[in-house]
Amino acid sequence: MWINRYVVSFLIAQGMLAPYARANPESPSVAPTASSAKPKEDVQVDRLIGNMVFTDRVTKFKQVVPVTVKETNVDRTIYSSGDVVAKDGRVLQIRVGDAVFRPLAGSLWTLPLKSGTEGRARVELLGGFANQTFGSIAWKARLTQNSQVIIDATIDYRPIAPTGYAIGMFGTWTANYSNTSELPDISLADIRGSAATTGGVYNFVGIEFQPLTDAVPQIDREIGTMVFTDSLTKIAQILPLTAKESNPDRTTYSSGDVVSKDGRVLQVRVGDAVFRPVAGALWILPLKSGTAGQARVELLGASHQTVGTIDWIAKLNQSGDAIVEATVAYRPTNQSSYRVDMFGTWIANYGKRRELPDTSLADIRGFGHHGGILNMIGIEFQPR
User: Fold this and answer.
1) What pTM does this model have?
2) pLDDT in tens, 315-332
3) CA 196, CA 146: separation in Å to the nearest integer?
4) Tens digits of residue pLDDT in 60-75
5) Residue-by-residue DSSP string for 353-374
């Protein structure tokens, strides 16, 4: 998505998963203490129940994603975030930063949480990997100084890169279930992967769930979905798309795209980045083949002001669809606060004459001191 991958070179490590170990059957030493988290019983299907605020802790990028109930029945509730909770409170799928896991053996926790309970699960990573990916989650529920029950988990998994090599991912995840929701109020993933001569891949994502209240206004009705696909790992993520605001001047989309009523593109999503021109201009819709331009742009959501350029041209492809071909350059900071020179291409197909591309593909790479950044994200817009 909208989520960054940090690498220095291609992966060269290959190996087997760590063997699965059963949870310790001994009774916990801490007396069970119930948390206030209780499964909700009266959730309306397809109703917006809140937003998830995703924050990449390296780049400080934030993205607000609507959360809906996709399905509820006598057995379980399925959320658009990927989380699934059984009616008896058992967690059947869980979002951990930019990944979603499902247990294959052992089990995850049960809501409401009880301090001192613990376990281990052998899990499968969901989301479109070309090769099945397994791992393990060892977890424990504990009481904090504020008398809240949280989950502390150690997680390992080994996704397979397109080259056929495994990425050894390992780290921690903490989730606070102090609210009366089946979803964590706050969670934090600190998971990284590396191999002998690689930089690594990171899952450093914090998530805050904001349930709808009088203080949190309901956003407009969903108009479709965006399917984000990481070209490196092949992980796919489906995100709801809404029109956050529409007025006589412009329409603002939850993806970060903004289009004026006369068709001028005022902000554009390029893979996992969103740009706004500060000089020059982007294209005008509907596209006219042969038009071209350059814009000096600002990268939105960065912890430090980041500027760059987008050189673009509109043309017709072999199928007769109107497309934009662009060369993109910008200099964000990496996890070590060093600037990274990012450079590459972005192609967007506006064949259906909508304000958002039907498909787009970013192939932008950057390397610098102490690590690099890749923006190799394909996006497909699927209208309702």
Assistant:
1) 0.51
2) 988 888 899 999 999 988
3) 42
4) 778 888 888 999 889 9
5) --SS-SEEEEEEEEEETTEEEE
For residues 97 and 190, is the Cβ–Cβ distance under 8 A? no
Cβ–Cβ under 8 Å, residues 103 and 92: yes
Residue 272's nearest CA partner among 314, 235, 322 is: 235
In 3-state terms the chain splits into helix, strand, coil percentages (rounded to 5) of 0, 55, 45
Burial of 110 (0-12, 13-18, 19+ CB in 10 A): middle
What is the tens place of the pLDDT at every residue in 176-229? 997 678 999 999 999 988 654 344 577 889 999 988 753 343 456 678 899 999
Q: Characterize the bridge pairing of strands 149-157 and 134-143.
A: antiparallel
Element (H, E) at 137: strand 134-143
In eight-state DSSP terms, residue 289 is T
Q: How far apart are CA 212 and CA 123, in angstroms?
A: 31
Q: Are 351 and 322 in contact (CB under 8 A)?
A: yes
Report whether 134 contacts 122 (CB < 8 A).
Answer: yes
Give the alpha-carbon dihedral of 219, 256, 356, 299, to 10 degrees. Answer: 180
Whole-angstrom CA distances from 73 to 31, 50, 57, 97, 337 are 33, 20, 36, 26, 47
Q: How many CA atoms lie within 13 A of 354 on its CB side?
A: 15
Closest CA to 200 of 212, 191, 209: 191
206 φ/ψ sector (left φ>0, alpha ψ -120 to 50, else beta)? beta
Residue 292, beta-bridge partner list = 313
Contact 16, 101 (CB under 8 A): no
